Write the structure tokens for this entry.
Amino acid sequence: MNYILAIESSCDESAAAVLKDGCHLLSNIISTQIEMHRKYGGVVPEVASRAHLLAMRPVIEEAMAEAKISYTDLSAVAVTYGPGLAGSLLVGVNIAKGIAAASHKPLIGINHLEGHIYANWLLEIQPQFPAVCLVISGGHTDLILIKDHGQYIRLGGTIDDAVGEAFDKAARILGLPYPGGPSIQKAAENGQSYFRLPRAWLKDTYNFSFSGLKSAVSRAVEEKQITNAADGAASFQEAVADVLVKKTLHAAQKYGAKNILLAGGVAANLVIRQEFQKQSSVPIFCPPVKLCTDNAASIATAAYQKFRQGQFTDHSLDVCPSLKLV
Ligand code: KG4
Ligand code: ZN
């Protein structure tokens, strides 16, 4: 029996999960700080790390209790060590090291982005290689070719704002609450995408740019071409989905991908998910909403692959706030 306890604290969610034999999720506990950061309109790093300090231990204890196992049963302790906020990552890494040392278990350091990708291995059917994965989160927008477990080639990514950041900024311009992604999705349900916002195609590359789109929303609001938040949200969401879907489908065709995987917080967006399903002839994998945004279950799934390959991490592990996937 293999049991992995995973810990995630890279941004504003304190999370812990226990995974059995790589696919049975025994617990998946998430304590979010969204309410604490809402009044600031974004995540305040020091507030985040202090909140992790208070939340992390009870979250881990709840995850272990729900899994009905003890620390001695664990096969390994996994933890996100980057990318993310340094002060937040430090809390998770320190507590993971403490548990691993006290229970004489191996430690597995996980790249947060790899965690997002591996949420797709918690689905009933496993993805096939080669796969093209679109990682869209608050801090990242990357198009990745996955040749095999742990073998990544970066095809492209954003040259300015991450797509989640663009959602958050556009929401602020439209007067919608933080976090912007869910607010825009909700507002758009009552809106019409009548206003044609620009798409940055960045021809012949798999790169993305979203800063012009955000400026265009701002201009359209100032010039009263967009007069209500719902229509602005619908127009924005449509423009984002258009670029993400077309570029990803092009890459999937070029590289003969057997599957397209969506990952990261923005992959929770229902319009983006629907457009992929509608337009793709390649099967789309997309984690359930709760496993798109930050969680430790995905970290545990990524760690299981490392465990199988005997890839353990030295207890001198440090955090790496700007860690890259490739
Ligand atoms: O992956 P994640 O939880 O944290 C990071 O690793 O960054 O992603 C957070 C981002 C935020 O920008 C949030 O606005 C966005 O994901 N998001 C969404 C939705 N839910 C969360 N964006 C669009 N539609 C959603 N439903
Ligand atoms: Zn994330």
